[in-house]
Amino acid sequence: MIIVRGDALATVANRGFAMPEIPSHPGAKPMRTLLLSSVLGAAVAVAGTAVPAGAAVPAAGPAVPAAVPAAGPAAHPAPARHGAPPKEVYGGAWQSGHVQGIAVDRRRGFMYFSFTDLLVKTDMSGRPIGSVTGFTGHLGDLDFNPADGRVYGSLEYKEARSFYIAVFDVDRIDRMGMNAEDAGVVSTVYLKEVVADYAADMNGDGVFDGNTGATPDHRYGCSGIDGVAFGPAFGKRGGPQRLTVAYGIYSNTGRSDNDYQVLLQYDIRSWKRYEKPLTQQLPHTSGPSGTDGKYFVYTGNTNYGVQNLEYAPDSGTWLMAAYKGAKPGFPNYSLFAVDAKSRPRLQTLKGQPTAEKGEVLPLSPRGELDRATGVRGWSGASGQYGLVSVGHGLYYVVQSAQVTENGVTKQTARAQLHRWTAQTPNPFSRIS
Question: InterPro entries attached here (predicted)?
Answer without folding.
Answer: Quinoprot_gluc/sorb_DH_b-prop
